[in-house]
Amino acid sequence: MRLPVAPPSFEALLSDTVAQGADELCRVLGAFTEVDMQGRYLHWDKMRHRPPPEGFSSEQWWLGVKMARRMNYKSLPLRDKRNLAFCYCLPAIVQKELHWLDRHASGSIQAEEAITDPQMRNTYLISSLIEEAISSSQLEGASTTQNVAKEMIRQGRTPRNKSEQMVINNYQAMHFIREYKNEPLTPSLVFELQRMLTQSTLDNEDQAGRFRRVNEDIKVMDNVSHIVLHEPPPAHELPNRMQALCDFSNTDTMQSGNAGTFLHPVIKAIVLHFMLGYDHPFCDGNGRTARALFYWAMAKQGYWLAEFISISHIIKQSPAQYGQAYLYTETDDNDLTYFLVYQLDVIHKAVTALHEFLHKKVRDINEAEKMLTQNAYLKDRLNFRQLTLLRHALKHPRFAYVIEEHQRSHGISYDVARKDLLFMADELKLLTKTKDGKRYLFVAPEDLELRICK
Known about the structure:
By secondary structure, this protein is mostly helical.
């Protein structure tokens, strides 16, 4: 990744245009909005390569766009390492995405049957937690595969290496977020998140659950070119910066003079994500902690559908854009709109992927259920969990299921999981029960389809 080209000086461009007369100034400043003709919120690094509107130079185009943005900036009570405030504006693209999320990701909207049905909900929630844990870890360098990681979590196997430990840590942290989503944000809660996310993965375990220190020089580097992309604020500022972030999180409004200004909760969640990454308060685990804080803030504000999405899975598809959104903000007057636009697009894609996933899963389960319930012998004798397992078994002959894995996959008790599998093996003969040491294995027979259709 390279550093973006910083925009030309707004003051210098304005001065040059003023020198050309009032008519020219009005022509330039009145011609543009915050976005380009296609509705995009472009940084100078991209705008300079595009043909400007007819009759204007690239610099005049930027001046007009920048003035429109400045007229609509809203300041945040959070500052950069130069003590300058971060800000944002609300172009149509941001307002449209916020409205879409209010309709599709909040608790007040009727959701898919697959996650409103209590029996099915736990299965999909656990699957989503696993997906986010794996993708977030892979973003930070974990090299384990999806299948190996899922098997490890579902079977409760001890991690074999640092990569697998990162996945387990992320999985436990996601559960921690759900448990503490109704609590105010405190430095100790953020410390605990970072400690959980880095447990048994640090070269120096003393670095877990505390700020980086003055003698711990932390910079964000490009892995290929090794150039410095970001130097976070100095360590001695971190306690005050963390407290300011917590105060921002726990206040319903942004204080502006004597009046409070409403801040949309999704914007607040995204700002928390950005600021934790910007401050980089820890020696390791900053990215994972930042994404975890985003989930916590979304859940706290009632966007419960966010529990079922994986933003890291979307970010992982194009990680350079993630870093670029940070750099655009830092190189253009602390304008957080770049990061808002990027993150809202990620959330939109993640929610859309969830709905597509749920539609497919419900359709597949209905097909399996239809096939199974048409069998007079099996009709009405199988619950949702057993139907799900059987459909998986139909595509994976000789797959071995264990009680603990079935328990974790569906969020049920050990006894309920045991009864599910024993019934399928002993009563219905749909699984073959065998032993591996002291535990039972329930194997999908190769003739399972014939057993169902008999």
